[in-house]
Design brief:
- The chain contains 8 helices and 12 strands.
- About 45% of the residues are buried.
- Helix content is about 25%, strand content about 20%.
């Protein structure tokens, strides 16, 4: 389906839970979030119905997000049922990989074709600091299990944070020299827990090119501009939601774990979808896509979103 600005909307990010087994400082409060009652969160059937309605409106790629999707009870059933929907060409997942060691093979068998792993540091002590609860060893084991399960071309999502991990840029880039993976550096966005952080925390993605001038441009991949080390097997992606926003090419919508449709990550507007018939679901999604905002304004103000990232699905 094409929106009012001529963008083809074919990508749904579906949050299966707002809970997470980590407490990353830029994403979640230290105490976590208030646990919703069972009735407040979408059931498996509701998620499948909403995904099916989105596919009827032209969605072809679906990414399961959270919070952390692997803590959601019934996640394998969700994967199997959505992957089996006619019209779904690609089912992906973004995970912190803490639980991936024991689930990678089952996820692959359930129809997940690609994995993105959120990882903001390669140093175990820093990992414990930024996540408050996590173990870097668990993530490393999860990445190995994903590789063994047949997930090729893994993507590592690394949020650039000034004064925290900018001294690791070269270390992350070096991973692409020998490994067929994509390291994607994402500009920190002023939303939720980090909305009022000092300006020096918010680095432009071009800091990567300054740190590793040997990187050569090789094209684009979705919202990322891609670069490669000479002779490198993998690639480096730069995602610039602030310094060079990609709103004119935005092709996505989001559904939160409690059944609200967001057509822009940074908009306060949310459209309730729960309780609608299949026909009404399609109509609501189609209307929302048609009215999708032209762009955000993060370059001059904090996000207008009323939720933290873990409540939206990134």
């Amino acid at each position: 389906m094409v929106d009012h600005y001529g963008r083809t909307i074919n990508y749904l990010r579906l949050s299966v839970t707002d809970l997470c087994n980590l407490r990353c400082r830029y994403c979640m409060p230290e105490a976590g979030v208030c646990k919703r009652t069972h009735k407040e969160i979408l059931s498996v059937d509701e998620m499948v119905q909403m995904a099916q309605a989105a596919v009827a409106c032209g969605v072809r790629k679906i990414r399961l997000t959270g919070g952390e999707p692997l803590v959601r009870r019934g996640i394998l059933e969700i994967c199997r049922r959505i992957a089996a929907l006619p019209g779904v060409e690609e089912l992906c997942m973004t995970t912190n990989a803490v639980l991936l060691k024991d689930m990678a093979k089952d996820l692959r068998a359930a129809g997940v074709s690609r994995l993105n792993v959120s990882l903001d540091t390669l140093r175990p002590e820093r990992f414990s600091y930024i996540t408050r609860l996590g173990s870097f060893a668990d993530v490393a084991a999860g990445l190995e299990a994903a590789h063994d399960a047949g997930f090729s071309q893994l993507k590592l999502n690394t949020v650039l944070i000034g004064g925290f991990n900018d001294d690791e840029i070269a270390d992350f880039v070096s991973l692409t020299r020998e490994h067929d993976l994509q390291v994607r550096f994402i500009e920190l966005m002023p939303i939720g827990e980090c909305a009022q952080w000092d300006a020096e925390r918010f680095l432009p993605a071009d800091a990567v090119l300054k740190a590793v001038p040997a990187l050569e441009p090789v094209g684009t991949g979705g919202v990322a501009r891609l670069y490669r080390l000479p002779g490198g097997r993998g690639a480096v992606g730069l995602i610039r939601p602030i310094s060079d926003h990609f709103c004119p090419a935005c092709n996505r919508i989001r559904i939160t774990a409690d059944g609200k449709l967001k057509t822009c990550l940074h908009s306060a507007q949310e459209i309730p979808l729960r309780g609608l018939s299949p026909e009404a679901l399609e109509q609501a999604i189609a209307r929302a896509i048609s009215a999708k905002p032209e762009r955000h304004h993060l370059e001059r103000a904090a996000s207008e979103s009323l939720r933290n990232m873990n409540e939206i699905g990134g």
